[in-house]
Amino acid sequence: MFLLRIIVALLLILLVQITVSGKLLYEECRSHMGKEFVLIFTDNSRHNNLLRLYITTPLNESVTVHVETPLLSQINQDYVVTNGSELFIELPIDLAILRTTKSNKTILVTAQNFIVLFASNMQNNGGDSYIIYPISVLSTEHVSVNLKSKSGSYHSVTSVIAVADQTVVDISLSTGSVVVFDGTTYTSGSTLSVSLNKYEVFQFTSSDDLSGTILTSNYPIAAFSGHELGNPEISSETSIDMIYEMLVPTIYWSMYYIAISNPVFDSGEGDLIQVFTSEDNTNIMINTSGTLDQISVGTKASYHQFDLPLSEAAVITADKPVLVSQISASKQLAVSYTGDARLLLPSPVNAWLSEYSFNTPGENMYNGLVLFANSISLINITLNEKSLNSSLQWKKIEGTNFIYTSIKLSEVHTL
């Protein structure tokens, strides 16, 4: 099985930037670039874990990067990254955190100037890669995005990292979920409160779906969520894989998204789309191929989900801020290769930019780039300084002025 990674720019499923009412998520550099990051890796019980960092810089200079485990003595090393190249760092596999626990296995990455950081947790026959947002954009409320999987053998997982001493995280569990910690069983409707000092981690798992679990804290935290090894029920395949993303705080959620179901595949079941609400009584409009559906979601952190067939677009609007997630179904790619499930958090339309730098893990991977653009303002698109205009075949998104296309690619890019 090979992991399929889809990278979407212009809509930018890698969430290069989020804006809310004109407020930039990261005003200083207008992107996911930063100088200080924290992250962790979760374990999914498979063997041969490869924990990796991929670091690039958009600056025309060499940037010194320091990587350490601030609460452990395992890592404390400097590296240098230059424009147009990728710094690849492999980390000890025992830094992966298994099931529900408190941990000191935070990884701290600091840089002299702006960098872009991706984490890659690859295991035998699978894994996931995810963008890491800088500490400067962290906040105090998140909603967990997980999965009700076809396979019940593995768990939904959510992780939080404190970046200040005396941080208290209150965890309000979603309907049907059960978490056991320190001999106490917590169920939906109850609140699990955890006290953390700077760089401490709390990770919790459940055999049930943790989606909709609310994380609130007195100081900003880094939050991650996903599933140890899962596959959405829309999939006809039995293959399972890890899905994991860094969560977007609710203050950056928005009211206008477009989702495209996996156009890099030429066949398959498509994507499972989930729309999470930040407030009670949220009205959601979904336009799929000209068919309009209006849904009212009554309570905060609840979600509406629907299947989006392969290569179809869904235009999602709401009267209050929401978060959209996409989970692809596993799919047979070739004779013995399966593109396993992956989780993406598309950014809202008001976050689109005109330039992006990003990278894709190259070995044993099928990588695709999906571009969204406004057909009225489309002028010229270059990838790595080469024009793409003559080679692109655009498709219209019904009910909008937007168009999209997809291409295959690998490794480090400037769009």
Automatic annotation (TrEMBL):
Domain IgGFc-binding protein N-terminal: 128-414
Highest taxon, organism lineage: Eukaryota
Cited InterPro entries: IgGFc-bd_N
Signal peptide: 1-22
Pfam families linked: IgGFc_binding
Tagged with keyword Disulfide bond: no
Keywords, comma-separated and alphabetical: Signal
The keyword Signal appears for this protein: yes
The protein, known as: IgGFc-binding protein N-terminal domain-containing protein
